[in-house]
Design goal:
Blueprint lengths: L16 E8 L4 E8 L3 E7 L7 E7 H7 L9 H13 L3 E5 L3 E10 L2 E11 L4 H17 L1 H13 L5 H40 L26 H12 L3 E9 H4 L3 H8 L5 E7 L4 E6 L8 E3 L5 E4 L4 E4 L7 E3 L6 E2 L5 E3 L9 E3 L28 E11 L1
Length: 396
């Protein structure tokens, strides 16, 4: 078997470059992406299935040479890229995948001796919330276009003899879309069954104990707060504002709209009556409400209607220092109270900048001596957040 040709001698560029190599194994096709910088090289494999994700690793030129003696002759990342491309072209690269990692096995031959080189890559994180949101949006579009698709499908069948190749391609697309619709229909059935079970449960209760069924425009579309927990927050808002709530509108969700502070300010600034929901890395759920608007400035604001709450403990924490109810900062997300009572930092999903400081004796809110009322932090040390959301409360 003819070996891969030796690479052309070259130097690694100062400007980053990226090369893509398509590799087809027995049962799957992969796209290999090699990104070269002046100091390191990143080898990444992408799979078309978003739930499998991507695998990657950074290498220095020293680490490349230590993988196998064959690489000792390579003096730059560009030479390695040329060599890798030649191996792929000669079909001497095999890819094997497990749940946790993926390996690239390269076969080379020198002096009739076969050698196998293995590069082990680790799996990168996959943003399942974002993927789920994209899939749900696609399902909604599919439902809206269903009638048009059926008509289009019939027209394609009638023209099959004229353009058979286009018909096959369109038929495959319809199957994929139909599968998405089936999944969405199953989800709707499951939700409908939950509603039916709830209604049946209510029917069996005495009349005076039946729960109030929440109007559709007051259901909270949250991944953090459950619908039945909303009554606690609704009562607190109504009591302080002396107004009836007409509607709850989601303005922002960190894992979907971007977790940087700038994303929050872009979608939430200058909007009054906002409810903030937070879920910490330890699955503690808490937040706050303010009638004042958030701004991209450095300013503290007075709000007699502001309060904090814990969904886990089912408690409302009142404001005892109106002059420092909330704090606006363009470099941070929403912040409540003096001394980081609640502070959502620049990027709490990726950095440990979510802070709570219930034990601060000068805290702006009353926690009745509970130094761990909100999150597992409680001492202004900083933790990660799994999610946070912002809703606008619209009054009648």
């Amino acid at each position: 078997m003819e070996d891969a040709p030796l690479p052309n001698m070259s130097i690694t560029p100062k400007e980053p470059i990226s090369e893509k190599i398509d590799i087809i194994t027995e049962d799957k096709a992969y796209k290999l992406i090699i990104e070269i910088g002046e100091i390191t090289m990143k080898i990444k494999i992408e799979n078309e299935d978003p739930f499998i994700g991507t695998y990657s690793r950074f290498f220095s030129i020293r680490e490349i040479k230590e993988l196998h003696p064959v690489f000792n002759m390579l003096n730059s990342f560009n030479e390695f890229l040329d060599y890798f491309t030649a191996l792929a072209k000669n079909k001497k690269i095999d890819i094997k995948q497990t749940d946790e990692s993926i390996s690239i096995n390269m076969t080379v031959e020198y002096l009739l001796k076969q050698n196998t080189i293995e590069i082990l890559l680790t799996q990168e994180d996959v943003n399942y919330n974002k993927i789920s949101k994209l899939l749900k949006n696609e399902i909604v579009l599919m439902k809206e276009k269903m009638n048009d698709m059926e008509i289009k499908y019939k027209n394609i069948i009638e023209k099959q003899n004229e353009n058979n190749m286009n018909l096959v391609e369109e038929n495959n697309n319809i199957k994929i879309r139909m599968k998405s619709l089936e999944d969405e229909n199953q989800y709707i059935k499951d939700e409908l069954n939950k509603c039916i079970n709830y209604i049946n449960l209510q029917k069996n209760k005495p009349e005076e104990k039946k729960d109030e069924i929440m109007p559709i425009n007051q259901k909270i579309n949250s991944s953090i707060m459950k619908s039945e927990e909303y009554d606690l927050i609704k009562s607190a808002i109504t009591e302080r504002t002396q107004k009836d709530i007409k509607e709850i509108k989601k303005l922002y969700q960190a894992t979907i709209d971007g977790s940087e502070a700038s994303n929050f300010h872009k979608l939430c600034d200058n909007i009054p009556n906002t409810l903030i929901l937070i879920k910490s890395e330890g699955d503690r759920r808490f937040g706050g409400f303010t009638s004042e608007c958030w701004e991209s400035s450095i300013k503290r604001k007075n709000d007699k209607n502001a309060f904090l709450f814990s969904l886990d403990k089912k408690k409302i924490y009142k404001n005892k220092n109106y002059s420092y109810s909330i704090y606006c900062n363009s470099l941070s997300g929403p912040c409540f109270g003096f001394g980081n009572t609640i502070k959502i930092g620049k990027n709490v999903i990726k950095e440990k900048t979510l802070k709570t400081f219930e034990s601060n004796p000068e805290c702006s809110y009353e926690f009745d001596g509970d130094s761990n009322a909100l999150s597992e932090d409680g001492k202004n040390e900083g933790i990660l957040a799994k999610e946070y959301e912002v809703f606008q409360i619209i009054f009648s």
